[in-house]
């Protein structure tokens, strides 16, 4: 067990670390609130799960967010965030947003390159952190078993549903702003541009 994981463990039994769910639940709620807030502000969210059993989970989670959700199911390509111009080209980097607003990792130890790049680019990270990992490697750790497909499915489901709620908030705000702009566009401009 990593010494920094001790606050999140209930203890050990037969050499197996028992994770304290009283610690996991508030951290999962905090992560869900963050995902909702980022999606509610129109942010782009990337789900990363590079094991074969995690690929359909990250794909489904990203689909729940619509155009704001993305996923990486295969290997993370080193330099995706830190070496953007040679990978994507200068025109793409100038015209499109390449750096996401939030990254969620379902197997963080296998994706340390992605975590390092997110830290360099100041992208917040959420990850399922098991007892063999240092919870400080990500900004928002969720103490849980990162080797369990069921755990990954549960956490990704909760976070993606929170993100879908945020997308709904974002769309309501866009519609409200469009209505206000339309209302002001129809009003006559009394006295604008005239000398009195």
Q: What would your notes on this structure say?
A:
With 196 residues, the chain is an alpha/beta fold. 45% of the residues lie in helices and 15% in strands. The protein has a five-stranded parallel beta sheet with strand order 4-3-5-6-7, with helices on both faces. α5 links the parallel β5 and β6. α2 runs parallel beside α6 (149-186). It is globular.
- Helices and strands, in order, run as EEHEHEHHEHEEH
Fraction of residues in β-strands: 15-25%
Biggest sheet details: 5 strands, parallel
Distance between the terminal alpha carbons, to the nearest Å?
78 Å
Derived structural class: alpha/beta
What's the mean pLDDT score? 92
Helix tally?
Answer: 6
Question: Roughly what percent helix?
Answer: 40-55%
Overall 3D geometry? Answer: globular
Radius of gyration: 21 Å
Number of strands: 7
Query: Low-confidence segments, ≥5 residues, pLDDT <50?
Result: none
Spatial ordering of strands, largest sheet:
4-3-5-6-7
Features of this protein?
196 residues; alpha/beta; 5-stranded parallel β-sheet; two-stranded antiparallel ribbon; 45% helix; globular
Summarize the structure in short.
By secondary structure, the protein is α/β, with parallel strands linked by helices. The protein is built from six helices and seven strands, in the order E-E-H-E-H-E-H-H-E-H-E-E-H.
């Amino acid at each position: 067990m990593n010494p920094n994981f001790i606050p999140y463990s209930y203890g050990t039994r037969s050499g197996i670390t028992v994770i304290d769910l009283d610690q996991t639940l508030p951290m999962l709620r905090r992560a869900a609130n963050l995902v909702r807030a980022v999606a509610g502000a129109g942010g782009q969210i990337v789900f990363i799960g590079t094991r074969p059993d995690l690929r359909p989970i990250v794909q489904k989670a990203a689909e729940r967010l619509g155009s704001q959700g993305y996923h990486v199911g295969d290997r993370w390509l080193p330099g995706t965030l830190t070496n953007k111009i040679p990978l994507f080209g200068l025109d793409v980097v100038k015209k499109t947003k390449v750096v996401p607003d939030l990254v969620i990792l379902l197997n963080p130890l296998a994706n340390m390159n992605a975590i390092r790049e997110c830290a360099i680019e100041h992208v917040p990270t959420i990850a399922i952190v098991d007892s063999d990992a240092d919870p400080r490697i990500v900004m928002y750790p969720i103490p849980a078993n990162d080797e369990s497909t069921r755990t990954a499915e549960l956490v990704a489901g909760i976070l993606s549903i929170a993100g879908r709620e945020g997308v709904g908030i974002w769309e309501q705000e866009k519609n409200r702003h469009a209505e206000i702009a339309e209302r002001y566009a129809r009003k006559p401009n009394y006295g604008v541009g005239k000398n009195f």
